[in-house]
Amino acid sequence: MDSPGLNIELFNVISNRLSLKVEWVRAPFPRCLILLQNGEVDLINAVSYQKAREKYGKYPFTEGEIDISKRLKYDTYHAFVNSTDQVQWKKGKFVELGKMPVAIETGASVKNLLNRLNIDVLELPNAEHAFGMLLKKRVSAVITNVNNGYKYAHPSIKRLAEPVQNKAYYLMISNQFYQTHTELAEKIWLGSQSLHISTYQAVEDKYNKATPW
Question: Residues in domain Solute-binding protein family 3/N-terminal (predicted)?
Fold first, then answer.
């Protein structure tokens, strides 16, 4: 596949450099966390940092703090709405938001922000389902990252210009894998860090150029 997704391509660079054989497993995000906690998978690609998630596995830490230099990427979350709607996202809040809920993917951390704003949230299994709901006007907006959103471009949908949220995302490694392969786990995180010096921009540009919004 020429465009398997930004996360996969980034990790493929790391795995190729370390001569790792990778078997991908697709699952809803909450299930991914349980699989990681149980040691049924070695790694999740990729996860934003929340302290509550530390019980599921390991993030790259340095001197007791999350090491942002070892992130896999930054992700920008935008709101996508129907083209005829007047809804806007300005200065950290919605303007002219309809009465229908805002759709996000199950487990997305942007839910915390929406909860603080007292916005009705509908969690759905994937972005495809969310955009289908938007086209049917059963939600007021979809909030997801740009690299997710570009696949669902449609004349009836527009992306709001101002980002809703910017977040760093990390490769999260199971406690079992880290205990058994500590040196390799640290090399994986160092590989994530080195991407930002070498190939990250080229891979990201590939997907940005494909974005029709």
Answer: 5-207
